[in-house]
Amino acid sequence: MDFIRYKIIFYPLLVIFASLLSCNAPKQEEQDESPEKELTYKADWESLKKHNEAPEWFANAKLGIYFHWGVYSVPAFGNEWYPRHMHFENRKEYKHHLEKYGHPSEFGYHDFVPMFTAEHFDAKEWVELFKKSGARFAGPVAEHHDGFSMWDSEITPWNSMDKGPKKDILGELSKEIKASDMKLIATFHHARHLQRHNSTSENPYWNSHYPFFEGMPPSSEDEELKYLYGNIPEEQWNREVWMGKLVEVIDKYQPDIMWFDSWLDEIPESYRQEFCAYYLNEAEKWGKEVVIVRKQDDLPLDVSVDDLEKSRKNRLEEKVWMTDETISKGSWCYTEDLKIKPAGEVLHVLIDIVSKNGVLLLNISPKADGTIPEDQRTSLLEMGNWLSNYGEAIYDTKPWYTYGEGPTKEPEGHFKNHAEFLKIKYSEKDYRFTAKGDNIYVMTLGAPQANEEILLTSFSRENLPEPVEISKISLLGNDAEIEWSLTDEGLKISIPATDLDEMAVVFKVEKK
Q1: Rg for the chain (alpha carbons), in Å?
Q2: Strand, coil or helix: what is 405?
Q3: CA–CA separation, 317 vs 145, rounded Å?
Q4: CATH 3.20.20.80: which residues of the chain?
Q5: Which residue of 48, 176, 320, 335 could cross-link 127, Cys pair, CB 3.0 to 4.6 Å?
């Protein structure tokens, strides 16, 4: 812990001091050591925007998998906000906790930690599943709002190596993910972990995950418990905990993507800039192009990628963006009543996102013992099977001039409209487009009827930004001959009488 604190507090000062010494020191005739290379990125937005926020590998990856899995998976009730909600008497989590575990003052969230055993966790088996599901990057929620770190940490005693599973979860996954030629993502939600209590606010505990109620563990003076419950002076927490944990993960695991949940605006801008500079400079040393993802307006978009929670763009975007979506219809973490989306619904979301220049970060919900429930596996593998057959239309593609056409429209908005996004059901009348080289891919979000003729008005003379000459149209994964014609009204395709994939059908349009 002392080394990390030293590095965070004094590293910038040492760089400055060394620079001054190198400028003022007398030149020696025999000096073999070359001066240290000046850092590319400084801790200011003007310098940081030199970074390519969405490198080609990221834009081409299209799909990643992460998971809300931690101590909050033990009660398996409500959702991943159980650590907070168990303290409020008007919440169902409080009543559940009272009945099953006792009063929160006597059985606190920290008492769940020994119950988070993860005895069936197998990093190799998990990564094999992610790979078969079609993901090109993967990784854990490194830390949620609850203050429990899913790696071997020297910053906090509340980590998966020292307590609970007694395993370096992030470390084990990192090894297997990189061995599988995938990229590593680590997501951070800990900006909300600090106890911030504004007594004048209508909701005085909103920006603090744990409420400061007298007699409850979050208000404890126990020095160890303070590190779990975020009951630490703000400046110390900003430097040692928020920044400290990020530096530690960067140094230990070299993640390709670092993703941030909301409340990043609660972190002083200088720390956000310092983090970005540190990460990007380290990545340059590694010879890697890395990605920073944020929600809302917490980081500039010429430094980071925009993320939408449980929602999507309803238009084609010039910049690459991301949606984080969950495989379930409710909680992000495992609960005993969790309902899982069928593979077709998840696939349609992916196709829609990709057609608009987006990337999907899909969440799954393992159990506390480290098993991934069978219904989640089934959905993942069915989607992966489709991608193994038709992924040519997804991976390494670019948007066409338009994302698609059809009757189903997405609403405007971000997470506030997530309930409306959940209601969306696409049909075979909805078409999405991608492009690669001289090929255009037309995807129907469902299987059209045999012998039906579809008209794609995006190919009409009036709509096309420039004329398109077509040499051939084929059905991916099928040898059936395709009858088609390009008219002023658009592209007409006759659906052959053959077996079609019920989830989505792909036509490959080859240009002359």
Answers
A1: 25
A2: strand
A3: 31
A4: 45-393
A5: 176
- Are the C-beta atoms of 211 and 94 separated by less than 8 Å? no
- Residue 43's SS3 state is coil
Q: Which two tokens stand for residue 372?
A: 């991934």
Q: Which residues pair with 486 in a beta bridge?
A: 491
At 210-269, the pLDDT tens digits run: 999 999 999 999 999 999 999 999 999 999 999 999 999 999 999 999 999 999 999 999
Is the domain spanning 45-393 CATH 3.30.1490.270? The answer is: no
DSSP letter, residue 79 = -
List for the chain the helix, strand, coil content (%; round to 5). 35, 20, 50
Closest CA to 500 of 459, 458, 460, 445: 445
Provide the token pair at 241. Answer: 């905990």
Domain range 404-511, CATH architecture: Sandwich (2.60)
In the chain, which residues fall in CATH 2.60.40.1180?
404-511
Q: Name residue, tokens 């769940």.
A: 112
User: What integer best gives the mean pLDDT of the chain?
Assistant: 93
Task: Taking residues 60-89, report their average pLDDT.
Answer: 98
Asked whether the whole model's pTM tops 0.85, one would answer: yes
